[in-house]
Amino acid sequence: MEELVFGPFTINANRRILLRNGVTIPLGSRAIDVLIHLATHAGELRTNSQIVKHVWPDTFVEEANLRVHISALRKALGDTQREPQFIANIPGRGYTFVAQVRKEQRAAVELAAVPGAPDRAISRIFGREETISSIETQISKARLLTVVGPGGIGKSTVARAVTSPDRCLSEIVWIDLSEVANPRLVPTVVASAIGVLARSENIVLDISAHFGSRDVLMVLDSCEHVVESVASFVEEVLSRAPGLRILATSREPLRATGERVNRLPPLDTPLSAPTARDALRFPAVQLFVDRADACLGGYKLSDADAPHVAEICARLDGIALAIELAAGRLETIGIAALATSLTDCFRVLTRGRRTALPRHQTLRATLDWSYTILSQPERAAVCELSVFPGWFTNDAASSVLADRDTEELIAALVAKSLVVADASQGETRYRLLGTTRLYAWQKLGEAGETTATMTRLAEYLTAMFERGEHELYSSPLSDWTRDYAQQVGSMRAVLDWAFGRAGDPSLGVRLTVSALPLFFRLSLLDECLVAVTHAISYLENRPGLDERSRMKLYAALGWPQMRATAAPEHGVAAWTTALAIAEEIGDVDHQLRAIWALWVDAINRAEPRLGFEYADRFSILAASSSDRTDAIVGKRMRGATLHWLGRQAETRDQLRQMLQEYEALPERHHSIRFQFDQRVTGRIILARALWLLGEEDNALREVEEAVQYAINIRHDLSLCNVLAEAACPLSLLSGDEALATRYIGMLKDHTKALSLDVWNCYADCFKAELHLRAGRTDACLQQLMPSMAILRKSGFLLFMTFFQSIAAQALAAQGRHTDALEMAESAIAHCESSGERWCLAELYRVRATVLLRQGTTDSMFSAEDSLRLALEIARKDGSVAWEQRVNKEISAVPLFDEQPISASR
After folding, report:
1. What is the DSSP string of 505-521?
2. Which of 96, 477, 755, 904 gives a 20 to 30 Å CA spacing to 308?
3. OmpR/PhoB-type domain: which residues (predicted)?
4. Can you give the pTM of this predicted structure?
């Protein structure tokens, strides 16, 4: 056997190991490949592409990956980049092995046949290089190593790779224990496999004597069903045969003396893969493509297939056997159909290799094998835990398990690789792999225990969320979210079951009501409305059953429908119903919520006079509330309404007082009761008032801080609110188009992801103004006019007058003066009828610019009148920003140079 020797180092290419003075130096398999390639070409420049092509022949790899392995080699060799003794870098070209290398011959060790091992070639292995290298290192240090993992994950495959002739020079003995039914027969099976005839009463003594001091690596494959017997056997035989080492594979550790455990993780899978190049970076996808290629006689992953393959691998949790079985189905089904069909993976994932062990021929057989070796309490527990679709805590598990010995049962299931544990985020959490969960869920149904178990989970979640509603007002929002957001998956599962054909809708009603704060805190508006609609339907058919819950549900249904652009009257009707029930049962809290919502509706419809009436009504009722924050919220409502009425100085003073009082509160967590974070909403209107009062820098600073705060507290509705009502319009009004572009992009992305249709329309309108500023009037109107129509139809008129001013300017720029004038005058008429005044001065200014574009004598005099009115309104309202715009317009008109317009003229 040939070895490469340089300095104190020796490379054994067959065993793929690096030794320093005879001691093995741990290296990953890719790193050793790189080293062997460089050493065999010592003195030659090897380009980056040559090295990558040799080491990763069928996989796309970034050159940065090569640099990582070069760095690992230098560390192992004690080399430096500045003064290299072994590997020199040629910048921009590649690497050269600069040490003298000599080749030496070493007699090969005769390898024993592998008694009992399946005569099977090792398939290509993906994503296990580091694991195999780690096992090689560990088995050289410890005499007993167990590879542990769930069924089908690839334990035997890894063991075969470790013991392959090109990696291992020890004598190999392979014992397959999968067919051993009687645990007491383990020593007999081993003796038979190695050809030992019993000569004493203790057969283990004979086996130990057979091995003696020989360097033997014995593989005990599939130990899980006879684990206790195997543990006793290995302890005794290892104590008597000093040259023997044992590599075991099992779904749980042996728990034998001196055992080291290597838990085999699932293959890495992509969360998403928009392109084939992205997908092929993950071992799970590489395995799928390899097996698909073999199955179809040729397959290359395309960009179109990549998202489907990524979904398949993710839904199969990176379990190698399941992925192989899935790829094998491509003979009869397409990629997209296969991804869809995996909801019934036990029917689809069949037809494994004929030479595979029976338990590996189908996915169900694999899980049957794991299930049958469980004790009865463990079987019941894994079935009951299947009600959790994702991660769960020990406390949650205790709530659904009929057997209350939770910790012991979960520990046993974790040990048997049926439950995955994660302690990386503080409290340990658990989950079942997707295929295991589906199997256990079916078993739960077959046992007739679904209703009882789901009922226990529903009651647990309801109690938790009911406590959470109170904790919401006493805990920081970040803590509340972290503690409760992980329950969303379970909540969805229970609601689907409760309102389904075989469920209990009364439990669904209770859970929906208790979960309302969670829905709103996490901005899960669509899901909330679906559940609320089901719950209301149930209660409406049972008059008087639970009026308090009905009130809360109507309140939830009536929350301003920022997610939708149709039937706004439904929201008003729902709030009116909620208010009537709240008054009937004397619930001050929900009376305040309903009045607040009706105020929001009036403001959204650009009717600030009506809004002021609701704001006053709220403030009067807030005096009787047990929560002193309600009075502060009332001040915010009043301050905001004053802004829309054009009273900017009063707005500024009111909101500064409101924010000061709010900040002084020991507890400030009201984003759920009144939809948005109060600090954010207060600063939105304060920023707008400051801009109008001429304090542009202060206004933009308020906006920036409010945006960042909304991001920090992770409240999407508050973030969209500040972007739509302050960040986008004020950056545009300030002329900072780069900032406006960034804010509009943020608003567009968030509103699209959350289906917040109204604010999405706002984003389109703001983008239309950018088109106007760039002189693209056609693009401006094409984007602006349809969005305005949607907003008008949906009843969201809050910014309609301002958007009309943009449309009027675009129409005038196209010479459509009549249309432009009608647009501006329509906006002015609305202001006069509703009391809206915040941009009235700007509307008269825009009207004047349209008239000036007409250029007739009459239009010039009318323009002068409009500018005079604009100046008077701006000065009366204290709107310095609008006044500056009007004066700039006046100074730009030569006709008015000799006779300046003044407010008193």
Report:
1. HHHHHHHHHHHHHHHHH
2. 755
3. 1-99
4. 0.60
